[in-house]
């Protein structure tokens, strides 16, 4: 009997076939095995999902926030009961290693609980008036219907990052998972289907970007598009949104600089930056993508980093749970990484370790790679690589490092390794980034605010500020 699953969209509280009847195949990136078929939804499906979300929204918003939060807590408990199953799905369709897949599932449950806990803390304001006998009240109200469009790299967690703040503040949502990773989204939805959430509050339609995604982001009755993905798609979505003046919240790509100064704890810097390049097979928007190392420690740093990357193991994480790294998501991802390394090599970069497509029979594996002697004009120092490749450029001092770091289209995360508080604070002041990590790996906390400047995005996620992205303000001037 075939293990290949066939999924249906989830609209108005029921699993339903796509109106077009078309299905898209979904494969395991490590083995090439066919995993599932999921709907390739069209404009009709988008219409039905948005209509269902709109019809449900007013009643949903009337419920006390604490009642809405109760559903999120129940879902979190159900997710915690299914970690094994859910982690296996993520490993199979995205190629994440098992331990990280389990972390993603548990973090998702914690995130649902965290956002649910805001239910009693959604606050308006009372503002002093210029007139006697008047009060100015500022209310926080839901936006209405949210479209959540997701990438494939944290496919399970990112559902919660959008639906939890949306639902607790009284919005309803239509989610479109990446065409690379529909399975985990529909498994999430199966768990959600059992918690008696009112019909239409949460909907899922799967399909490709240019078909389903484009129809959803261009729909006139969506109040905010909450998108995570590449800069190019973010730009296409903004164009679509412009037709109906739809609000956008965009979490886009990054090219995170890591600065390593002469006085850094070198072993700490090597460990944290290496982990940053290896985690999720090098495919994380906020992880260190380029290093500026001060000349005094450059040789030692490069040598230690090359050794650490060389010791990184890779393979099919579904067959061997002990590997450090799985495959890249698809052939296009692998080709892009290979082309960027080849171009850097031709321009004079030294390949300190790796530098080739891995010699394995199956899967989109690239060797863990360190490139020394890089210069600012190389694509590996400018563009998002999204693979296990670390380019390094030598600098004379912090000023040069900051200038190079800031000379970028991106502005998501940055990091610095130094024992000097003065140097660290100078970097925090001068780096034009949404986040700076000092002497630690780049990984955001749910109570922080994950947001980029420049082409890395608009708006943000997490914490109080992320929650309020899903609300609008309504001011009442009340004279009595
Ligand atoms: P992508 O932009 O190719 O696709 C993301 C989603 O957009 C998919 O669901 C896709 O189907 C959809 N899409 C594509 N074209 C569309 C269109 N014209 N209209 C509407 N939707 C469309 O990104 P990806 O390859 O899935 O993800 C990798 C990218 O995501 C990287 O650039 C990474 O840095 C970024 N990312 C950013 C963050 C963050 O928090 N800033 C987090 C994770 C990933």
From TrEMBL:
Name the catalytic site residues: 251
Pathway membership of this protein?
A: Carbohydrate degradation
Indicate yes or no for the key word Oxidoreductase.
yes
InterPro entries membership: Ald_DH/histidinol_DH (IPR016161), Ald_DH_C (IPR016163), Ald_DH_CS_CYS (IPR016160), Ald_DH_CS_GLU (IPR029510), Ald_DH_N (IPR016162), Aldehyde_DH_dom (IPR015590), Aldehyde_DH_Superfamily (IPR050740)
Q: Which GO terms describe its molecular function?
A: aldehyde dehydrogenase [NAD(P)+] activity; identical protein binding; succinate-semialdehyde dehydrogenase (NAD+) activity
Q: Which family does it belong to?
A: Belongs to the aldehyde dehydrogenase family.
Q: What is this protein called?
A: Lactaldehyde dehydrogenase / glycolaldehyde dehydrogenase
Which organism does this sequence originate in?
Kushneria avicenniae
């Amino acid at each position: 009997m075939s293990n290949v699953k066939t999924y249906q969209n989830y609209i108005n509280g029921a699993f339903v076939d796509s109106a077009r009847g078309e299905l898209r195949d979904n494969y395991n990136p490590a083995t090439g095995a066919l995993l599932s078929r999921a709907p390739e939804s069209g404009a009709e499906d988008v219409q039905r999902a948005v209509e269902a979300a709109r019809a449900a929204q007013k009643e949903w918003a009337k419920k006390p926030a604490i009642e809405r939060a109760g559903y999120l807590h129940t879902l979190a408990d159900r997710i915690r009961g299914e970690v094994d199953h859910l982690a296996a799905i993520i490993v199979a369709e995205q190629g994440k290693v098992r331990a990280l897949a389990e972390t993603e599932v548990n973090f998702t449950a914690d995130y649902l609980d965290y956002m649910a806990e805001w239910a009693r803390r959604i606050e308006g304001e009372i503002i002093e008036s210029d007139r006697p006998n008047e009060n100015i009240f500022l209310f926080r109200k839901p936006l209405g219907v949210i479209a959540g469009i997701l990438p494939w790299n944290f496919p399970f967690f990112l559902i919660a990052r959008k639906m939890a703040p949306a639902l607790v503040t009284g919005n309803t949502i239509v989610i479109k998972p990446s065409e690379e990773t529909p399975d985990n989204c529909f498994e999430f939805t199966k768990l959600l289907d059992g918690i008696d959430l009112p019909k239409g509050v949460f909907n899922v339609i799967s399909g490709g970007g240019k078909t389903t995604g484009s129809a959803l982001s261009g729909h006139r009755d969506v109040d905010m598009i909450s998108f995570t993905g590449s800069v190019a798609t973010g730009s296409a979505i903004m164009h679509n949104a412009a037709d109906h003046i739809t609000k956008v919240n965009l979490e886009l790509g990054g090219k995170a600089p890591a600065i390593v100064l002469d006085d850094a704890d070198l072993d700490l810097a090597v460990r944290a930056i290496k982990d940053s390049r290896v985690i999720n097979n090098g495919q994380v928007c906020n992880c260190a993508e380029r290093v500026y190392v001060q000349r005094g420690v450059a040789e030692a740093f490069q040598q230690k980093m090359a050794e650490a990357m060389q010791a990184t193991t890779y393979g099919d994480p579904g067959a061997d749970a002990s590997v450090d790294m799985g495959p890249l998501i698809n052939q296009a991802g692998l080709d892009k990484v290979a082309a960027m390394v080849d171009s850097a090599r031709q321009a004079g970069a030294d390949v300190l370790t790796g530098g080739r497509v891995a010699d394995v029979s199956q899967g989109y594996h690239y060797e863990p790679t360190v490139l020394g002697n890089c210069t600012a004009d190389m694509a590996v120092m400018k563009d998002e690589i999204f693979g296990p490749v670390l380019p390094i450029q030598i600098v004379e001092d912090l000023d040069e490092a900051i200038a190079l770091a800031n000379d970028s289209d991106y502005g998501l995360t940055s990091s610095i390794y130094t024992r000097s508080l003065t140097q660290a604070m100078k970097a925090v002041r001068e780096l034009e980034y949404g986040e700076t990590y000092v002497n630690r790996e780049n990984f955001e906390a749910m109570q922080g605010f994950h947001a980029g400047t420049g082409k890395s995005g608009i708006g943000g996620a997490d914490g109080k500020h992320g929650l309020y992205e899903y609300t609008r303000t309504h001011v009442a001037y009340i004279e009595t």
